[in-house]
Amino acid sequence: MRPSPARTGFTAWVEDLAREQTEGVAAAAIEDGLSGDDAVDAIREAFVTLVAIPQARTLAEHREDTATLLAVLVRCAGRSARRRHARLKPATVPDQRLLDAPSVATLIAAADHHIAARGCAFKVAEIQRHVVVLRVFDELAGSDAATKLGISDASIGVLLHRAKEALQVCMTE
Question: Alpha-carbon torsion 37, 39, 45, 47, what sign?
Fold first, then answer.
């Protein structure tokens, strides 16, 4: 890296560094996944950082180290640009199942209703309570509940009907 004949000193060294290193660090930035515009921004940011280092004037004496430092600064600037870019992406559209899901208030109301219904189920006659628990809460078929309780299918229907009436009265109290 020789300074240009017209200029000497630190400014000439920075100018020469820019001419000699820009193509290589630009290629590295693009290989790292930056677009052309983002690569130019990363290189500009790296040069600003390099020149702002308090020991920048002494870096002219360590030309190879300076080229390596510049490449590192470009890569860091590129990573920062990718992070900033990722943060700016619009939120993705949520899954339709999430949009169709009931609200928290609706779920809480349903849970409260379920708790109240369960409490009322313990206020009905014991056989009716067993029918309600098996048919409503455990979701057993009528015939399965009848077999489990040792009664007829028709009795299950009558007991469930009477229990529902008693539960409605209890739930409105």
Answer: negative
- Residue matched to tokens 């809460």: 137
By percentage, how much of the chain surpasses pLDDT 70? 85
Cβ proximity of 67 and 21 under 8 Å: yes
Tell me the C-alpha distance between 133 and 140, whole Å: 9
Measured in Å, how far apart are the chain's first and last C-alpha atoms? 92
Amino acid at 156: I
26, 39 contact by CB (below 8 A): yes
Give the whole-angstrom CA distance, residue 18 versus residue 22.
Answer: 5
Rg of the chain on CA atoms, in Å? 38
Handedness of CA 123, 124, 125, 127 (dihedral sign): negative
Mean pLDDT of 79-98: 63
Instruction: Give the confidence band of 3 by pLDDT, cuts at 50, 70, 90.
Output: very low
If we measure between CA atoms, which residue out of 16, 47, 11 comes closest to residue 29? 47
